[in-house]
Specification:
nine-stranded mixed β-sheet, alpha+beta, 14% strand, flat, single chain, 21 strands
Length: 935
Amino acid sequence: MSPRSVRDRRATAACAPWVRTRLRTASGTAWALGLLVLLTAFLAAAFPRAVDRYENEGLRRDIATADPRLSVLELSTPQPDLQVPQPQREEAVRAASLASVHRTVLSGLPDVLRPDTAQSAYGFRTVTPIPAEEGWLPRPYGIDPQLTYATLSALPDHAALRDGAWPTAHGTVTAHTPQVEGAVTEETAKALRIRVGSTVSVPTQGGTPLTVRITGIVAPERPEATYWSAQPLLQTPSLVAKPKDPDPRYYWIAAVLLPPDAAPALLATAAQPEAFWRIAPDASPLTATDVPALRSSIASLEGGPGLVDMRAVAGPNAALKTDLDAILARYDTLREAIGPIVTVAAVGIGAVAAVVLLMTIGLMAGRRRGELALLRARGGSLRGIGGRLLAETVVTTLPAAALGLLIAVLTIGEARLWPSVTGALAVAAFVCVALPLRTALPHRRPQPHGARDDLMSARPSRRRTVAELTALVLAVGAVVALRRRGTGSGDGDLLVSAAPVLVGLIAALVLVRLLPVPLRLAQRSVARRRGAVGFLSLARAGRTSAGGALPLLALLLALTTTAFGGSVLAGIADARDEAAVRAIGADARISGPGGSVPLPDRLVREVREADGVREVAAVGIEYDVMLPFDGTGDQQTKSATLVAVDPATYARLARSTGLGAFPADRLEASGSAARKAPSQERVLPVIASPSVARRLGDRPRDFSAAAGNFSARVAGVVTRTPAVAVSDFLIVDAASLPRPQTTTLLVTGGSPDAKALRTAAHRAGKDVTVRLRTEERGTFVDTPVQRGAGEIYAAAIVAGAGYALLAVLLSLLQTAPERTALLARLRTMGLTSRQGRRLLGFEAMPQALLAAVGGLLVGWATTALLAPGIDLVGLALSTGSQAAAPESVPLRTDPWSLALPALGVVVLTAAVAAVQAWWAGRRGPITELRSGDPR
């Protein structure tokens, strides 16, 4: 081996690895980049998991809280054909046969449809209720009560024995068995006066009645569970009206529970008995991705291959019915309404994060410009430099992204893993690709040292102009598409969701082009003044790099996303407040049964004296007042609700609630009509809804009501009114009616004493109810889907504010060395510390003010442009009272969401500039002004 080879090998071994050396010498930069990547990867991984979580919880809640009569799957088949031998018919309905079918049915269900075996049941029941003629049974209107008879599996597991003994089948029960045992629930026994030992005679087709002897009184352990609630009659009797009876007369209908092996006895009845298998769905393992397969499985079981398989087990005439598909349809409607709105927030934050990452990469590239230029001058290849940059970026970025993914998985519960992995990998790939390219590509060819790239002198290239025009076309197209299509249809695409981002991009590009104009004007004005601080600060602001569009874009996107998210949350709160006001009509509402029973005068006085009550509007409401024919030949009858009010008090109430404000004098009779006593000859002015006003026209019409007969003419039209939520109404002065009555009290006040109001109402009658606006507002609770979407928007606001903070810091750090050196030079010329702080503050203010004002305008414009295409009704009003809820909830600008973030940017910029000036003042000029320093 030659001595030269040995020397080369020793020299190679002595060279330290590039990545390790770089990480050791610039550990702070590596840690800062890793922290930013970790945060961004966490957000990218957390978003799909949060969406999955709230969608899964929403699906499970919708199924679990739905009426069991809707969610349960019930397979039923008629009794065996009469052509079948009687022993086989009896064997087919015994407990063992039904249990075998039940097990087969459960095992044959699709995988996505998992049954809750504990709440599922099967048995044999009569379909047609059978009248009971026993004289000791109660008959409120002289009509015999009607009873249904059913066997129910696992009854002792779901009920507790309160009296007597469990019913059992003695021997082998057949269709000719004369007597069987039965049980009833406590509510049935109390309502129908049934005791242990009572007997009920059931008519049969053979003529010999079947006697059912009650041996036990049971109490359901969980009455709300599907086992009992799927057929409420099993536990609770009901009074039903006799059909086709002009005068409503009621009779009792109830159920008697038989032992499972007593089912053959029901074959002798003429009540069309049938076997049933009731399957309660288990929603706990379901996820939102299972909904399409679940809907397909239900359709198959109701009328497809699945039903064919069920009939092969339960019988050729078996049928399956369920309303679970309707529950899934409502869930899909809500999810499709909310999904595009959430995507808007995700795209906004994603764009802000990408811009901030690019700013960070640009700052790192600027700090290493001299180092890489030296490497290129010494023969370093662009590919070799890029490879080393990629290696050191991967070492920092991949562990940070993996840690962010791990934190997201541990923080947010059960959800799909692959979308989170995709999000975290996208962040890591973006940084690993962008950083080497942004750092190495500017060194493709030698760059002259000291070349200025000022904002004031830069001239946009043709390529930049084309790119800006392309972005403008995309932004206009996205806004137009969102306005036309809207988010309520659920078919929004990524371009539509990116509309706020594109609007912010266009605004940033426009503002960067316009910024030199006010700077030149400001320079001319301060150039003639004494003092150098103002002129120097504006000159420094004008020498900002022409690439300053990136910090401005980051701030505008962050401010726009924050303002948009704040407007969404404020719109949800406002919509719920409005719905509560519409439902109550005031701060409190006191009324009798049905809202039409007169209230005593004493109650009105007591309510007025209660604490927190400012004013009470006494209203008389009469429903179904017939309207006269319109005279056009249309003989269709139509009714409206008559609202009798005190004009002055009610007008103030309508004005304060914003529900159909009108001048009080519109209801006051004038001229000769005002001097007449209440009578039918007196023509009263009325305020009508639009439909009623069209029906009545502009001439006097006659009315007949419980408050008296009167004539009226329409004096005004309002679309809504506080007293009623219906769309057809008439408002009239109560003092002008012959027999006015107060049926409702509408109470206004800051915080009426609910306890005092309810005490006064209870003294007036047990059926008098008190409803508060605050309590009604509380009924609009967040479902998991709504709550999850609201949390995502709240997180978007916080993330937008955080990225705005980073954008301000990065934009100031990029030129920090130059500003520090400038302060050092100026201090040698006599610049004071106070003047230094003012200089840095004034230098940073133009872009901060531009971002703040631009953020205000862009946030307002974005909300105004996109509002027609965004409906928040799915986010705000899927729960609570829907009778008075608005049909749509448009997006409205929230002033606080616009002003506070913009003001925060200005304050933050000033604070950072002051801290930088203070820090630079602590170091001496000798430290900053070194020989040969290019700054």
